[in-house]
C-alpha cells in the first residue's frame, strides 16, 4: 500500500508542479505586438479555414464532440472585439485631449443661393 501511495503522490506532485509553472508563466508580462495579440485572439478557439476542412473538424461540425466550430468562431470574434475595444481605449487615454479652433469655412452659402447666374444672357 505505501508504494501505491508514493507513486500516486509523485504523480500529483508532478501535476501540481506543471500547473504551477503554467500559472507563473502566464503571469509574466507579454512582449508580443498588438498584431500578434490580434492573431492569437482570432485563432484561439477556432482554427483557420484549411484546418476546419479536415475530417475531424467535419465530424465536430456534425456532432460537436470538441465544440461546434461556429461557437468557436463566435468566441474568437468576441475575444477579438474585446481586444479591439481595449486597444482603442488605451490609444485614446494615453494622450491629453487637444482642442483647436475650427478653420474658417469659405462655403457659407449654397450654390443655389449664389448671386451669379449659371445661365449667361
Provide the fold topology:
Elements: H1 2-27, H2 34-42, H3 49-52, H4 55-63, H5 69-93
Low-pLDDT parts are: 21-25
Counting copies of identical and different chains, the oligomeric state is: single chain
Structural class: mainly alpha
Shape assignment: elongated
N- and C-termini, Cα separation: 115 Å
* Overall number of strands: 0
- How much is the radius of gyration in Å? 30 Å
Largest sheet: none
Describe the overall structure.
With 121 residues, this protein is mostly helical. The protein is 60% helix and 0% strand. It is built from five helices and no strands. Helix 2 packs antiparallel against helix 5 (69-93). It starts with a helix and ends in a 28-residue tail after the last helix.
In a nutshell, what does this entry contain?
With 121 residues, the chain is mostly helical.
Task: For this entry, give a set of tags.
5 helices; single chain; about 0% strand; mainly alpha; elongated; about 120 residues
Amino acid at each position: 500500500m505505501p508504494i501505491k501511495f508514493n507513486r500516486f503522490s509523485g504523480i500529483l506532485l508532478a501535476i501540481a508542479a506543471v500547473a504551477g509553472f503554467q500559472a507563473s508563466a502566464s503571469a509574466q508580462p507579454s512582449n508580443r505586438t498588438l498584431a500578434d495579440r490580434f492573431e492569437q485572439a482570432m485563432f484561439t478557439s477556432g482554427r483557420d479555414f484549411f484546418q476546419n476542412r479536415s475530417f475531424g473538424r467535419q465530424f465536430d461540425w456534425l456532432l460537436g464532440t470538441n465544440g461546434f466550430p461556429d461557437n468557436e468562431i463566435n468566441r474568437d470574434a468576441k475575444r477579438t472585439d474585446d481586444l479591439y475595444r481595449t486597444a482603442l481605449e488605451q490609444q485614446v487615454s494615453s494622450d491629453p485631449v487637444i482642442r483647436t479652433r475650427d478653420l474658417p469655412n469659405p462655403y457659407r452659402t449654397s450654390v443655389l443661393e449664389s448671386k451669379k447666374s449659371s445661365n449667361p444672357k
